[in-house]
Amino acid sequence: MNKTRHWYDYLWIWSIVFFALGFFNIIFAWLGMLDFILPLLFAIFGGNKFFCNHLCGRGQLFSVIPKKIKCSRNKPAPSWMSSKVFRYGFLVFFMTMFGTMLYQTWRVFGGVSSLSETIKLFWTFRVPWGWTYTAGSTSDWIAQFAFGFYGLMLTSALIGLIVMVLFRPRTWCSFCPMGSMTQTICKIKNSRKRD
Description:
Layout: H1 12-24, H2 34-46, H3 50-55, H4 57-69, H5 84-109, E1 118-121, E2 125-128, H6 140-166, H7 177-194
């Protein structure tokens, strides 16, 4: 039986387009903020995880790739990976890295630091990415945010791909920081409805 396809079943293409655009022009990394803002809006105003379940291009991509090239071992992930301690620990770590990135952007905005045309992979390795930016085409702080955010998005995508290969395709979804945040918001909203 064929499942009815919806327009949003093809949002995995958005993930590929996002990384491709950022590879050629880093300023496009700002578009990734949609993946930060929209899930929160759906959770806050809808009280549900519709974004995570239907609109997340990254989660879809982790489903599509193994179907196309059979690269996932399709094994259950260790139980600790979906535990509350790990999920919220990873969320705190992720948000700390996001805060550090914002602080670096603020330093460039204030003229304390100069623009670094690199991205950080796995929050550790600085990778030159200067070909994606023409100096003076925008304010340095706008470019600094883009470099930092692209590195953050690329790192999380690579982690998702690694766990996709080692375990089940959408293992990333079990500890995705946005998923943890939206789940918490939904629980709070739903508990208030019951009161």
